[in-house]
Amino acid sequence: MKRLSALTLLTLGLSLACTGSGEDSVPEPQDTQVEDDRYQPTGCEELEIDFSGEDPPVVGDVWTLLPKCDGNILIGAMVIQVDPPSAGLLDESILTWAEAGPAEIMLQAGSKKAYLQVEVGEVAR
Question: Is the pLDDT of residue 24 over 70?
């Protein structure tokens, strides 16, 4: 009987220790969001096509095409098309000029599109 009493007292004591008003046991939520007035994200005002390669290009030259928005290089999905399609061979953002004559590059990033008119020259012999 004494064991039962000691066990009962221990259980009762633990249950009383766990009950209380709860004010001290639950921490208040903290606002961890910091407002920074220096950084204000803006949308893309003007999409441009930037490239590295010979300008003006000749057949066989290779350009790496980069989308730029407000002077900053964009990273992510983009669509590139060359018109006429026979003017160049596209591999991701690498364009190899295949045909002399006028061509137009269209680059789309998000909902913005940019166009670049190019005159591709013949290879000098």
Answer: no
For domain 47-120, which architecture applies?
Answer: Sandwich (2.60)
**CA 119 to chain CA mean position, Å:** 32
Among residues 73, 95, 75, which one has the least CA distance to residue 86?
A: 95
Q: How confident is the model at residue 42 (pLDDT cuts 50, 70, 90)?
A: low
Strands (E), 2-124: 47-52, 62-69, 72-73, 79-83, 88-91, 94-97, 101-109, 112-120
Domains of the chain, by residue range, sit at 47-120
